Amino acid sequence: MRLEGVNKYFGAHHVLRDVDLDVRAGEVVALIGASGSGKSTLCRCVNRLETVDSGRITLAGEPLPEEGRELARLRARVGMVFQAFNLFSHLRVVENIAFAPVKVRGRSRYDAAERARELLARVGLADKGDAYPGQLSGGQQQRVAIARALAMDPEVLLFDEPTSALDPEMVGEVLDVMSSLAADGMTMLVVTHEMGFARRAADRVVFLDNGRVEETAAPDEFFDGPRSPRAREFLSKVLAH
Ligand code: ADP
Ligand code: MG
Prior knowledge:
Elements: E1 2-10, E2 13-22, E3 28-32, H1 39-46, E4 54-59, E5 62-63, H2 68-77, E6 78-81, H3 93-103, H4 109-122, H5 138-150, E7 156-160, H6 168-183, E8 188-191, H7 195-201, E9 204-209, E10 212-217, H8 219-224, H9 229-238
Helix pairs in contact: 3-4, 3-5, 4-5, 5-6
The structure holds adenosine-5'-diphosphate and magnesium ion.
């Protein structure tokens, strides 16, 4: 996944400024930055939930499609896990995961449900397939949301603060699933405030400040000695508590 010279405005507000960003196959990139720096907007542009004003975004060398069927295909190639899980409350867990593969990929219900159960096992919830989302904890629901994203066989997974809405005791179980995906070679862009996770699991850290990529570095390099004053200031705030 590659962004080249991407600019995005909301009205007069310049939200992404000449952003260049690469996530190579099998790589895990942690995208960090203060609230309002443009992290979610960047993710939404990659998934074409927002359009860019200039610059290029490519996936495996192909530019993002504008609309129509191609756009639906693109969305299937880019999995997204948000802060809010947005599971269908009236559908069982297995049905939540199998829903899009049946509707978008045209898989049979039987195959999609089988696959859903495999993916549930992968996120440590083999016994929850028949439960309804409301019967699960937040951490479990987020793991279902990850399984749902994986069910589309995405080439890239984007995570936008997947643990921010969780009670502290549930953060670890979700990060563990993400770490195991990373170890399996999944290509991931992860917006997170979990600095320990970023340091352990990421291959690279990209620090966004006011819509601009201020610094890109290996995690140890970044956390031990950020080069830019803005990154130093940010880290001193988030690591202070
Ligand atoms: P982050 O995820 O890093 O907190 P966002 O990408 O959500 O940042 O937001 C970046 C900036 O763009 C913020 O100033 C935010 O208020 C603004 N913004 C985000 N979405 C919209 C929108 N749909 N309309 C107008 N402004 C927006
Ligand atoms: Mg955000």
